[in-house]
Amino acid sequence: MQNSICNPWDAAVRGSGFFFLQLREGREKGDRRSQPTAGQSLQEEEEQAVVCRGCGHPITAAAAIFSVDGSSDHMFFNPAGIVFEVVCFSQAPGCDVDGPPSSQFSWFSGFTWRLAFCGKCFIHVGWLYESGVSAFYGLIRNRLAGDF
Fold first, then answer.
1. Dihedral of CA 17/19/23/26: which sign?
2. How far is the C-alpha of 96 from the C-alpha of 82, rounded, in Å?
3. Which phi and psi angles does 111 have, rounded to 5°?
4. Each residue of 38-76: pLDDT tens digit?
């Protein structure tokens, strides 16, 4: 039997407590893999903020919505049959990204994915998609709040 803890997809779908415990312990020790970057003014960020629905932590801004394959909104289902409505963003400085890149079950051809978590409460909010020359975030709509 395959150890599901080593597979990031299984950990995200099944909510492996061990995986999230490791992530939380790393963050508590100050291991930040994705640091927010300076950009808009604080007022602009507050007006356009897209936040974690669970804790209110700023994840990105509505201005970062990004079109992939002709649309910024996509609906997919994973191999377990769970449906996700995903919105694409060019950046998400409020996310922490973890796990090795995987091309298994990638929803975007030519891109690998890594898990993206809220930088404050560590709930799974989506994925970082990367290719050799570009990257974007596919964030789960119902795990976000804000005007976007």
1. positive
2. 23
3. -115, 140
4. 554 555 545 589 999 999 999 999 999 999 999 999 999
For the record, the structure tokens of 144 come out as: 């976000």
pTM of the model as a whole = 0.71
Reduced to 3 states, what is the DSSP secondary structure of residue 25? helix
Identify whether the C-beta of residue 56 lies closer than 8 Å to the C-beta of residue 122: no
pLDDT at 13 over 80: no
**Contact yes or no for 139/76 (Cβ under 8 A):** no
Q: Which domains does the chain possess?
A: 4-146 (2.170.150.20)
Query: Are 129 and 141 within 8 A, CB to CB?
Result: no
Q: What is the dihedral of CA 112, 33, 27, 95, to 10 degrees?
A: -60
- Of 8, 36, 61, 50, nearest to 144 by C-alpha is 50
